[in-house]
């Protein structure tokens, strides 16, 4: 099976700065791939080469079997690109903006009118369609920008930090919409420095730092590079000293300590799987009234791999 989007050996230098170095990855049909990296990591530079806006110093890009350099028109027709900076005409209405972009894609007038209605409905802005863009919030503008990228029914949607500076309502609309597109078979490249968004939306993640993809995998695979176990906190009623001893004896529990008058903290492997066993182990001694499993996350993996925090 051909990947919807793939790149190999992508590199770009700006003077002394190697903004992107030997970047390669692939995205299957219907797959959501995340590029997670801090400010200045090279995300926008990499994307600009993937969508044909920036000439790479080295490397190649394939979109649905079309080589971007050899056959740019066919390749670009399969891509929907939502840039980091909003690109809309403030004096035009949302509908007029969409009409403008739709014509750039060469959509016939009839079909375009229908697609505009569909896209406005999809981004949840049908009722505001005839308002000027400069009366829109940042989040609403972003949603129209995403709509513009969908007009020509691309195979892969490329989003560059789509929720930066966006109100919570629009953020939710964007994330829900993106998940729906992927569920319907769209391939997705999602870049962000928000770990929780990438964790939610993407099945596979590439961690990018100083222009290089330094690790790649599912959330689980990346987090397993930490080699650390889950933390579990139990709140209990009963004899906590005896309960602590019992819990410590459970296979998979590497540590159990009392925390305050009503809690026990544990370090366990595969915490959520072990919960029933933990609860059973204290039966007759204490009653578990609350449970919290604190799993290691991508932020922890990123920290481990780069020695840096994701956010400044
Ligand atoms: N046009 C340019 N000229 C010179 N240097 C550039 C240019 N564009 C980007 N850079 C540099 O290349 C590196 C990568 O920048 P890029 O914008 O790709 O990062 P990013 O991961 O998108 O960051 P952000 O999260 O801030 O958007 C940075 O060091 C940046 O300063
Ligand atoms: Mg950027």
Structure description:
This is ABC transporter ATP-binding protein. Keywords: ATP-binding, Nucleotide-binding. Residues 5-235 form the ABC transporter domain. GO terms for molecular function: ATP binding. It contains 11 helices and 14 strands. The protein is of the alpha/beta class and 312 residues long. It has 2 domains: 5-224, P-loop containing nucleotide triphosphate hydrolases (Rossmann fold, 3-Layer(aba) Sandwich); 230-295, Alpha-Beta Plaits (2-Layer Sandwich), CATH 3.30.70. The strands form 3 sheets. The protein has a 6-stranded mixed β-sheet with strand order 6-7-8-3-9-10, sandwiched between helices. The chain has a 4-stranded antiparallel β-sheet with strand order 2-1-4-5. The protein has a 4-stranded antiparallel β-sheet with strand order 12-13-11-14, covered by helices on one side. Helix 3 (94-104) packs parallel to helix 5 (138-150) and helix 5 packs parallel to helix 6 (168-183). The longest helix has 16 residues, at 168-183. It is elongated and about 75 Å long. The two termini are 40 Å apart. The structure holds adenosine-5'-triphosphate and magnesium ion. Magnesium ion is lined by residues 43-44, 84, 160-161. Residues 43-44, 84, 160-161 line the site of magnesium ion.
């Amino acid at each position: 099976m051909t990947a919807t989007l793939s790149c190999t050996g992508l590199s770009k230098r700006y003077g002394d700065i190697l903004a992107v170095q030997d970047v390669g990855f692939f995205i299957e049909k219907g797959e959501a791939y995340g590029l997670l990296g801090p400010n200045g990591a090279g995300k926008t530079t990499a994307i600009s080469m993937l969508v044909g806006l920036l000439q790479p110093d080295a490397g190649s890009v394939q979109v649905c079997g079309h080589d971007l350099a050899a056959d740019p028109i066919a390749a670009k027709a399969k891509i929907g690109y939502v840039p980091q900076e909003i690109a809309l005409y403030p004096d035009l209405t949302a509908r007029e903006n969409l009409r403008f972009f739709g014509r750039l894609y060469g959509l016939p007038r009839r079909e375009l009118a229908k697609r505009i209605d569909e896209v406005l409905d999809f981004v949840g802005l049908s009722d505001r369609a005839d308002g000027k863009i400069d009366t829109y919030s940042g989040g609403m503008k972003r949603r129209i920008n995403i709509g513009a990228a969908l007009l020509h029914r691309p195979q892969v949607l490329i989003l560059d930090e789509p929720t930066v500076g966006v109100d919570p309502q629009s953020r939710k609309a964007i994330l829900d919409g993106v998940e729906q597109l992927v569920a319907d078979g769209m391939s997705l490249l999602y870049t962000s420095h928000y770990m929780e968004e990438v964790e939610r939306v993407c099945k596979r993640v590439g961690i990018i730092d100083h222009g290089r993809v330094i690790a790649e995998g599912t959330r689980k695979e990346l987090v397993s590079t930490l080699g650390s176990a889950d933390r579990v906190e139990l709140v209990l009623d009963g004899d906590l000293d005896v309960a602590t001893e019992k819990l410590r004896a459970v296979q998979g529990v590497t540590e159990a300590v009392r925390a305050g008058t009503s809690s026990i903290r544990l370090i366990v492997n595969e915490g959520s799987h072990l919960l029933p066993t933990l609860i059973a182990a204290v039966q007759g001694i204490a009653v578990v009234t609350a449970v919290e499993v604190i799993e290691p996350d991508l932020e922890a993996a990123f920290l481990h791999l780069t020695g840096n925090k994701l956010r400044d």
